[in-house]
Amino acid sequence: MTGAGRAEHRVITRAEYCVIACAEAWRDDGEVLASPMGLIPSVGARLARLTFAPDLLLTDGEALLVRPDGTAEGWLPYRQHLAWVTGGRRHVMMGASQIDRFGNQNISCIGDWERPERQLLGVRGAPVNTLNNPTSYWIPRHSRRVFVERVDMVCGVGYDRAAGARHHRIPRVVSDLGVFDFATPDRSMRLASLHPGVTVEQVREATGFELTVPDEVPPTRGPTAEELRLIREVVDPAGGRAREVAS
Question: Which InterPro entries does UniProt cross-reference here (predicted)?
Fold first, then answer.
């Protein structure tokens, strides 16, 4: 490889920072079922399993537990899957058409639900997910249309509506601009880290509510050399991550 080629190979893309940020959602979870929804969360979950979260369980979405390469390593019948869902032993990473400052999520409709401007996926399993096991979120395009003051319909339940549900927890929200959590006294959203090249002003401008911003915002952790190799050569060699988040 030429010197220019080596330099290009070392350049870490925004999508790869997002993969790391998603992977970190499962750090220290132990033996739980990871349910990533979307390409970058899936790459992140598999990377976590291969590195710092070896006890993480991956599924094919139907009836099998699988290794990071997709080969079967166990059987998970649907009745057992439901038992895990209601017992806090799963950590989902979902998408959000809208999300508000307390982590309420909407994937059902835009506008009044009786006569919506746009019909989306529907409520689906979001209430069960959020009340019965930890749920993080992945949002590939951070904007005021997604980060809203108030969601049009509550699908995923936020901190202001959880009413002490035993397994309710929103570990993190990852977007193409940064990482967010709810480590504030009132459990409202906080900027936890910025992806390289992104400013606090950019995040505020793209967010439709008042976001808690610490005096010093750290950068999002970058991949180690081994993590970068695994992302590029093992987990996502086709480079699908770049189609979800442009550099």
Answer: CoA_trans_fam_I, NagB/RpiA_transferase-like
